[in-house]
Amino acid sequence: MDFELSSEHQMLRDMTYRFAKDKFPPLSEECDREEKYTRDLVTEAAALGLVGAWIPEEYGGAGMGSLGNALITEQISRVDMGIGHNIWAASFGCEAILHFGSEEQKKTYLTRVCNGEWISAGAFTEPNAGTDVAGYRTRAVKDGNDYVINGNKTFITNASNSDFLVTQCITNPEAKRHDQFSLIIIPTKTQGVTTNHLTGKMGLRSSDTSEVVLEDVRVPQSNLVGKEGNGFRQLMDLFDTTRVWIAGQCLGLSEACLEESIKYVKERTVFGKPLGSFQISQLKLTEMAVAIEALRGLVYKAGWLVDQGRPDYSLSAMAKYFGGKTAVSCANYAVELHGGYGYFEEYKVQKWYRDAKILELYEGTKEAEILTLGRHLQRD
Ligand SMILES: Cc1cc2nc3c(=O)[nH]c(=O)nc-3n(C[C@H](O)[C@H](O)[C@H](O)COP(=O)(O)OP(=O)(O)OC[C@H]3O[C@@H](n4cnc5c(N)ncnc54)[C@H](O)[C@@H]3O)c2cc1C
Predict the structure, then answer these.
(1) Distance between CA 258 and CA 331 in Å, rounded?
(2) What pLDDT digit, counting tens, does each position of 319-354 carry?
(3) Among 211, 255, 363, 369, the one annotated catalytic
(4) Which residues contact 118 (CB under 8 A, 6 or more apart)?
(5) Going by CA atoms, what residue is nearest to atom 23 of ligand 1?
(6) CA–CA distance from 347 to each of 157, 249, 324, 326, 333 (Å)?
(7) Coil, strand or helix at 321
(8) Which among 61, 89, 114 is the end of a domain?
(9) 109 and 43 in a common domain
(10) Are 110 and 160 in a shared domain?
């Protein structure tokens, strides 16, 4: 057993942190306050190989695998999860293209995402169905050599800034429930596609979250990803990987909370002594540190298994589930340790507290992870 990261992964980790530390802070506050998206930073990150770093080199990626991408989501989230979200999610949806798409789709879409020219969005959630993935209603009907697509998607990361959407649609309404769906690539400039940036989020405010309206959108049938009717299973496979990266976000945000809290309890004096000298503060730091180390083990192992060609959906779900809980509780401890100061904009912990909650909501709510794990644990 070897717990050491490879030298390539160590270099990637350190380089990503340096990039985030240099580039994010001047923009963080403004982007959070004004809900501003920063395309320029995505372009800069792409130039360093940080966008789609998990994609093999032959399709323009850095070939760093899922573990490598988890290190990226961890390090960017240690600095600012909102801006970081724009960077890692610039390739969201492309996992399906890599694993199920045609050679032509891989060459067309993956290479342009990796070099920063294009941004993708994974457009799955609908206004009436999020957790219930088989409840989506967007329809794609064949007409000549095309599909004509109608429906609504919501809460889609990057959609207003994206060049194409990887979209879940019903193509086979007569089939059994889970065999009705297909993933289809829709270039965002296609006639009939409208995107609306949604404002008013509690956290992750520097990321773009949009609704998408699809009205008689016509795309060639060659935009189908893989086989018709496989969309549901393809999406489940995609989550096995992307949940590891969200768990990486959880890890990074939790580490930031711990680092900032340690700094603060050393500086702050209460009852004539450093705050950190009181056992109740030490308990909070200890709870954070232990959970972070346990989470690191889950994230890195789940990512490593994906890279070994043995993705483990239950481990990915555990990493995401435990990651969300850890991030929310670390952000809570960090605000508590900062006392009243932690409630003010001037202190970063209030932002992390707001940002953390999304980690228990997207890419499967924590309840959805419980359903997955509850079924898995009782399997014969
Ligand atoms: C900032 C942000 C970014 C996002 N980015 C994307 C994106 O890029 N692409 C995308 O497709 N989606 C995205 N989403 C959507 C996100 O994945 C969904 O919001 C999430 O899956 C939950 O779906 P929902 O909001 O419809 O909640 P619902 O499914 O309506 O769930 C409501 C509540 O009921 C619970 N619940 C549901 N079913 C059960 C059950 N069977 N048993 C017990 N409890 C249950 C849920 O856990 C939740 O607590 C994003 C959301 C946000 C807020």
Answers:
(1) 8
(2) 999 999 999 999 999 999 999 999 999 999 999 999
(3) 363
(4) 109, 112, 162, 163, 164
(5) 130
(6) 27, 20, 22, 20, 14
(7) helix
(8) 114
(9) yes
(10) no
* CATH code of 369's domain: 1.20.140.10
Cα of 235 to ligand 1 centre, how many Å? 15
| Number of alpha helices (DSSP H) and beta strands (DSSP E) in the chain | 13, 10
* 55-84 CB burial, b ≥16 within 10 A, e <16: bbeebbbbebbbbbbbbbbbbbbbbbbbbb
Model confidence at 145: pLDDT above 90: yes
Contact 25/79 with Cβ under 8 angstroms?
yes
Alpha helices in 268-278 (DSSP H): none
Residues with Cβ within 8 Å of 320's Cβ and at least 6 positions away in sequence, in order, are 243, 244, 246, 247, 250, 363, 364, 369
**Which pTM value belongs to this model?**
0.97
Q: Which two tokens stand for residue 317?
A: 């779900």
Q: Which amino acid is at 364?
A: G
| Domain contains 39 | yes
Question: In the beta sheet, which residues pair with residue 214?
Answer: 151, 193
* Span 158-180, average pLDDT: 97
Domain carrying residue 153: 120-228
**Residue list, ligand 1 pocket, CB within 6 Å:** 92, 122-125, 130-131, 155-157, 201, 204, 209, 358, 361-363, 365, 367-368, 371
